[in-house]
Amino acid sequence: MSLSDSQVKVEKAGPKRRNVSVGDSLFLVIEPITPDGKGGGKSFEGRMRFPPGRKGKQVPVRIGVYGKGVGKWSLRQARDEWDRIRSWSRETGRNPRELKKEEQQAKVQQSSGPTFEQACESYLSTSTAKERTKKDYRNVLWNQVIPKFGADTPVEHLSWDHKGTGGKKGREQVMDYFRSMEVRAPAGLDDLLASVRSGDEDKPKKRGRKKKEAPAMDFKSVLWASADKLRAQMDASKYKHLVLSNTFPTPSRS
User: Whole-model pTM above 0.85?
Assistant: First the structure.
């Protein structure tokens, strides 16, 4: 039997715990009143068999406390939430309790770790680059990169193994962004890229008819080899500024 919100509101607590069905495998759980007059709280709990079928076990999924205000659920909200959880479980073939667990873990990570914007601020505040260079980095980060990934996104969500709500891992999100960027090469890099492709960057130039270039390598291989050759004997702490300026190109100035 399906209950209305007014019926849920008037349900009274007693000396024993009660489970009242409100329809579609969703229950109103009413806690007992203790001898000292405490207790009697109401909350919603969904129940479904997992795995589906007669062999599956009845799995309880707590929705939340009944009522109005922050952290509380009305009957309508509880029904919508239970529909969402059941649909997710059917589509993914996973235990319905795992969705709430994953979402709770994400909230903990978000509250305990730095955001992407905070990480960018921290990097710039400790960078030894020239002020003009840091200004360029800031323009690129705040105008291009942060709007893409979100200022409030926890850095943890961009880690290689973190799986986002869309199913993509942090690695895939970052690499998708790099592929969509138009990389503006610094002066002289075009020649270096060409030499890396042909493998003759250290060979002396010969006069006469030009040699036919070898087939081009894939973009990642070319970029990696180019960056490695550009570094040469340069200290890593200095080289990172060159890498960042290539990875996050600044808009051309008029």
Answer: no
